[in-house]
C-alpha cells in the first residue's frame, strides 16, 4: 500500500451500480484480481479494487470508504498476510475482512500454499474455528474466475432480489454468511455420462420414507460428487432453501464441519454456543437437504450428524465419502466404475459407442480435440483403454485429455507400462484429483499403519481374492484379516463382488498398481510373495482334477487365473520342483479355456532346467510338452517330446503317468501317419485308466474314438465316443461332452441320418453362449457341420464352416489335431472341387472372418434341406 496522505474530501466509486469490493494483496494475486474483475464485470456489476481509486487519500481511508459504498465483499488469500500500516495491529487485508461483517462475503483461498505466512494461516484457521464464514479453494485464475462468476450469479438471484425502492437490499450478518443461503449447488462444467441409473436410484433412495441419511461411497475419482450434485439438483425444489451444498475437502478437523454447515445455512455462531445447537435451531422443522461433499477425512463427525438428524425431524443429509459413516440411520449407495463388458469378437461401432465409459472418453477427448471421433480403426483401442482403467471416470477423463497429443492406440501402448502415462488433469479439478497418484495417495493417507500394510499385501493379488486367500497370504489370522478387509472396504479401496457365490474382494487396477509400489519397499515382501505362491500352487497341486464337476473346477481356475500366473512366475524363479505336476493339472484347463499358447511359454521356460528334476517330474513335463505342442501345431516339438517319453519308459514308476505317456503317444503318432500305433497306445492308456478308475479315461476314450473313426471303424468309434460323451456329462465337462457329440454327429452324417446329425450337432454347441466351449471344440463342430452341409448339398455353407474353423484356429494360435488333419484336408479338397476357384476362395475367406459367436450361429441355425444343390459347379 502507498504512504498515507491526509484528505477530507469525499471518496466515491465511479458509478452507482451494485458494487463488489475485492480484497487481496496486490502483487502476488495480480493475475487473480484481473480474473475476478472480469468475472464481476461480466455480470454487469462494478468491481471495486484498491488500486483503481484516487490516491490523494491515505490507504486505510480509501479502502474503508470503498467498503462503506460496496454491497458484496470478495476476499482472495494465498501466502502473504499483507502490509501493516502505522498505528495498526493487523494488516489492511485482515482489517478489510473485519469491516465487511455486515455484507455478504465470498472468500477464496489459493492452494497449494507452501510458503503461507503464519499470520494469514492463523487468520484462515480462525475463520474455520469461528464458523462465521465458508470459503472455496482454487488453483488457477481461470478456475477462480469461473467460481466467482457462478457464486455471484447465485447470490444475486437469491439474496439481492429488488426491494420496494428498487435498490439492492443489504443482507444482515445472520443471513449472509459466506453468501451460501438457498441454492448453493455448483454448476457442473461437464456433462454427467453413464450415471442415469445411479441418479434414479440415489434420488429414489432419498425419496424413500424414513430414509434420512444417504452416503454415496466409492473410490476416489469414481464420480460421487457429480452424482450428489445431480441428485441434489433433482430434489431441491421440494426444500424451501433448495439443496445446500457444503464442500469439505479442505476441512481436516471433524469439529469444523458443523461450523461450516452453519455458515452455509446462514446461521450465525455467537459467543459460546455449540455449533450443533445453532444448526439444529436454524433448521428446526424446516425441510432441508444438506449435501456434504468429501466427508472421508472427517468421518468422526458422524455422531454429531446423527444427533442433528434426531433433533431435526425433516432434515435429510446426502454425503459423499470414500468411507461409510457406520451409523444406524445411514443407507449406503455404492457408486461403481462404469462397466466395460467384454465382446466375444470384433464389435460393431454402434455397440462400442453405446458403452457409457466410451461415451465419457469421447466426450472428454472432444474437449481437447474438437474433431475427435470414434472410428472402426480406433474403437477397440478406446474400449481397451476404458477396460484397462477399470471404467473409473477420473482415469478415463485423464486418459482422454492425452488425445491432444496421442492417438488411442499409442495411448493404450503407454498405459501398458504405467498409469502415470495419464498425466495431470484439468486445473479446475481438486488438487487431490489432478493425477491418479494424488487420488490414491489421498485415500491411503486416511488409513492407519495396519490398514496400509494390509492394502499393500492385497495389491499382490490379481483379479481379486477370497477371504481364505487373504488369511493365508497376510499371515494375520482370520479375525484380524476380516477386520482389516472390512475397514478397507469401508474406505472404498477394496470392493466385494456381489455376483460371487462366496465373498470375493477386488481392487481397482489404478489403485492396485500404485499401492503395489508401496509393497515393493517393504521388508517382508519376500515372505508375502512366497505365501501367495504357495497358496495358489497348493490350490492346484494338492487338489488334482476331481472325479466330478470338471466344469466347476475349471471355472474356479479361471477365476484365479491371474493369481496362478503370479504364483507360477514365483515358482519359476525360486522353486521349480512342484511345477511339472501343477502344469499337468493346468493342462486340461488350458485346453478347455484356450490358454495353450500361454501355457506352452511357461513349459518351454521350465524345459530349459529339466535336468534339475527327477524322473517322475521329467515324465510329467514331457507329457505336458507333447500334448501342448500337438495343440499348437508344433509337430517337431511333439515328436521330440515323444522321444523323451520313450527314453523314460520303465523308469517312471507311477501307473498314472505311464498311462498318460501312452495317451501322449497316441496324439503324436498320427503326425507321421502311424494311426495303428496311435490306436494301440490310446487303447493301452484307456485300459490302464479304467483299471485305476481315473477320470482321465474320458480323454482316452475320446482319442480312441477319433482314431477308430479315421481308420473307418465306425462301430468301435461310436462306442468309444458315446462313452466319452457320457463321462463328459457325468463330470460336468462341457468341453469333452461337446467334442464327443460333434464326432458322433459326423458318424451319423456318414450313415445318412442327416436329421439326427443336425439335432446332435446343434446340441453340441448350445453351451457356447456361456463361453464353456474351447476354440478347438467349436472347430470340431464346424468341420462336422461342413460334412453335414455337403451331404445336404449346401456347398457354400460347407465352405463357410471350413473357413470359420481355420480362422478361429489361426487367431487362437492352434492347429487341427493330427488325428483329424487328414480327414479335414480331404473334406476341404472335396468341397473345393464342387465350386469354381473364385467362389470357393470368397466363401472360405468370408467364413474365416467370423468370430466365435457368429461361427456357433452358423452351426446352430436351421437350414432348408437341399438349398445348396444349385451351387454345384458354379
Short summary of the structure?
By secondary structure, the chain is α/β, with parallel strands linked by helices. 54% of the residues lie in helices and 7% in strands. Strands 2-1-3-4-5 form a five-stranded parallel beta sheet, with helices on both faces. A five-stranded parallel beta sheet has the order 7-8-9-6-10, with helices on both faces. The chain has a three-stranded antiparallel beta sheet with strand order 11-13-12.
Overall geometry comes to: elongated
Number of helices: 38
Largest beta sheet: strand ordering: 2-1-3-4-5
Strands, count: 13
Describe it for me?
There is one protein chain. This protein has 874 residues and is α/β, with parallel strands linked by helices. The chain is 54% helix and 7% strand. The protein contains 38 helices and 13 strands. Strand 1 (19-23), helix 1 and strand 2 form a beta-alpha-beta unit. It is elongated. Mean pLDDT is 82; it is low at 1-15, 159-183, 425-429 and 865-874.
Amino acid at each position: 500500500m502507498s504512504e498515507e496522505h491526509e484528505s477530507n474530501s469525499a471518496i466515491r466509486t465511479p458509478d452507482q451500480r451494485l458494487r463488489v469490493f475485492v480484497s487481496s494483496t496486490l502483487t502476488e494475486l495480480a493475475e487473480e484480481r484481473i480474473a475476478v474483475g472480469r468475472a464481476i464485470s461480466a455480470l454487469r456489476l462494478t468491481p471495486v479494487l484498491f488500486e483503481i481509486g484516487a490516491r490523494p487519500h491515505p490507504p486505510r481511508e480509501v479502502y474503508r470508504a470503498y467498503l462503506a459504498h460496496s454491497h458484496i465483499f470478495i476476499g482472495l488469500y494465498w501466502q502473504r498476510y499483507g502490509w501493516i500500516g502505522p498505528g495498526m495491529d493487523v494488516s489492511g487485508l485482515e482489517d478489510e475482512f473485519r469491516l465487511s461483517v455486515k455484507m455478504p462475503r465470498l472468500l477464496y483461498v489459493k492452494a497449494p500454499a507452501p510458503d503461507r505466512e503464519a499470520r494469514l494461516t492463523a487468520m484462515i484457521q480462525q475463520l474455520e474455528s469461528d464458523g462465521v464464514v465458508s470459503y472455496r479453494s482454487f488453483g488457477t485464475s481461470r478456475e477462480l474466475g469461473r467460481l466467482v462468476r457462478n457464486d455471484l450469479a447465485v447470490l444475486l438471484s437469491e439474496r439481492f432480489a429488488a426491494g420496494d425502492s428498487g435498490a439492492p437490499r443489504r443482507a444482515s450478518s445472520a443471513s449472509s454468511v459466506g453468501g451460501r443461503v438457498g441454492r448453493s449447488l455448483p454448476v457442473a462444467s461437464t456433462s454427467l455420462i453413464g450415471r442415469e441409473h445411479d441418479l434414479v436410484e440415489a434420488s429414489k433412495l432419498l425419496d424413500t420414507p424414513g430414509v434420512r441419511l444417504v452416503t454415496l461411497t466409492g473410490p476416489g475419482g469414481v464420480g460421487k460428487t457429480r452424482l450428489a450434485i445431480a441428485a441434489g439438483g433433482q430434489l431441491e425444489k421440494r426444500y424451501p432453501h433448495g439443496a445446500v451444498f457444503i464442500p469439505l475437502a479442505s476441512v481436516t478437523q471433524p469439529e469444523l464441519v458443523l461450523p461450516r454447515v452453519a455458515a452455509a445455512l446462514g446461521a450465525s455462531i455467537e459467543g459460546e454456543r455449540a455449533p450443533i445447537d445453532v444448526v439444529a435451531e436454524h433448521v428446526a422443522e424446516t425441510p432441508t437437504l444438506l449435501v456434504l461433499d468429501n466427508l472421508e477425512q472427517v468421518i468422526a463427525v458422524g455422531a454429531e450428524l446423527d444427533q442433528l438428524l434426531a433433533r431435526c425431524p425433516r432434515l435429510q443429509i446426502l454425503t459423499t465419502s470414500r468411507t461409510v459413516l457406520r451409523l444406524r440411520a445411514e443407507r449406503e449407495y455404492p457408486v461403481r466404475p462404469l462397466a466395460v463388458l467384454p465382446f466375444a469378437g470384433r464389435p460393431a461401432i454402434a455397440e462400442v459407442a453405446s458403452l457409457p465409459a466410451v461415451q465419457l472418453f469421447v466426450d472428454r477427448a472432444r474437449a481437447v480435440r474438437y474433431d475427435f471421433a470414434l472410428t472402426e480403426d480406433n474403437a477397440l483401442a478406446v474400449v481397451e483403454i476404458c477396460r484397462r482403467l477399470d471404467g473409473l471416470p477420473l482415469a478415463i477423463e485423464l486418459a482422454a485429455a492425452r488425445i491432444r497429443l496421442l492417438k488411442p492406440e499409442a495411448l493404450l501402448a503407454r498405459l501398458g507400462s504405467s498409469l502415470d502415462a495419464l498425466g495431470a488433469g484439468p486445473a479446475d479439478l481438486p488438487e487431490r484429483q489432478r493425477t491418479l497418484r494424488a487420488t490414491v495417495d489421498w485415500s491411503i493417507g486416511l488409513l492407519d499403519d495396519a490398514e496400509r500394510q494390509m492394502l499393500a499385501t492385497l495389491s499382490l493379488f490379481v483379479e481379486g481374492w477370497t477371504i481364505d486367500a487373504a488369511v493365508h497370504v497376510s499371515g494375520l489370522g482370520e479375525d484380524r484379516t476380516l477386520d482389516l478387509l472390512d475397514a478397507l472396504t469401508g474406505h472404498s479401496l477394496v470392493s466385494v463382488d456381489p455376483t460371487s457365490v462366496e465373498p470375493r474382494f477386488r481392487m481397482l487396477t489404478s489403485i492396485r498398481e500404485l499401492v503395489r509400489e508401496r509393497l515393493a519397499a517393504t521388508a517382508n515382501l519376500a515372505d508375502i510373495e512366497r505365501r501367495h505362491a504357495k497358496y495358489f500352487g497348493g490350490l492346484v497341486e494338492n487338489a488334482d482334477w476331481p472325479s466330478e464337476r470338471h466344469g466347476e473346477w475349471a471355472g474356479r481356475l479361471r477365476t484365479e487365473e491371474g493369481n496362478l500366473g503370479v504364483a507360477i512366475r514365483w515358482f519359476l524363479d525360486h522353486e521349480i520342483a512342484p511345477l511339472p505336476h501343477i502344469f499337468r493339472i493346468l493342462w486340461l484347463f488350458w485346453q478347455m479355456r484356450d490358454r495353450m499358447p500361454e501355457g506352452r511359454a511357461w513349459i518351454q521356460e521350465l524345459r530349459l532346467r529339466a535336468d534339475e528334476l527327477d524322473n517322475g517330474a521329467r515324465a510329467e513335463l514331457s507329457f505336458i510338452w507333447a500334448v501342448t505342442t500337438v495343440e499348437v501345431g508344433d509337430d517337431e516339438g511333439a515328436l521330440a517330446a515323444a522321444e523323451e517319453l520313450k527314453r523314460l519308459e520303465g523308469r517312471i514308476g507311477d501307473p498314472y503317468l505311464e498311462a498318460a505317456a501312452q495317451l501322449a503317444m497316441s496324439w503324436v503318432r498320427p503326425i507321421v501317419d502311424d494311426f495303428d500305433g496311435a490306436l494301440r497306445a490310446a487303447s493301452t492308456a484307456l485300459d490302464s485308466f479304467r483299471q485305476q478308475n481315473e477320470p482321465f479315461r474320458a480323454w482316452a476314450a475320446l482319442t480312441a474314438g477319433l482314431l477308430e473313426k479315421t481308420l473307418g471303424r465306425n462301430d468301435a468309434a461310436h462306442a468309444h465316443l458315446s462313452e466319452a460323451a457320457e463321462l463328459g456329462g457325468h463330470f460336468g465337462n462341457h468341453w469333452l461332452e461337446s467334442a464327443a457329440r460333434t464326432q458322433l454327429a459326423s458318424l451319423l452324417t456318414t450313415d445318412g441320418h442327416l436329421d439326427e446329425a443336425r439335432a446332435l450337432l446343434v446340441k453340441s454347441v448350445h453351451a457356447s453362449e456361456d463361453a464353456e466351449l474351447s476354440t478347438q471344440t467349436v472347430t470340431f463342430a464346424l468341420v462336422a457341420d461342413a460334412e453335414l452341409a455337403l451331404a445336404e448339398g449346401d456347398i457354400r455353407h460347407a465352405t463357410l464352416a471350413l473357413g470359420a474353423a481355420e480362422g478361429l484356429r489361426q487367431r487362437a494360435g492352434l492347429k487341427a489335431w493330427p488325428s483329424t488333419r487328414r480327414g479335414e484336408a480331404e473334406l476341404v479338397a472335396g468341397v473345393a472341387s464342387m465350386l469354381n476357384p473364385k467362389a470357393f476362395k470368397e466363401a472360405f475367406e468370408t467364413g474365416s472372418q467370423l468370430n466365435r459367436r457368429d461361427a456357433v450361429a452358423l452351426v446352430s441355425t436351421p437350414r432348408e434341406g437341399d438349398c445348396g444343390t444349385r451351387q454345384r459347379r458354379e
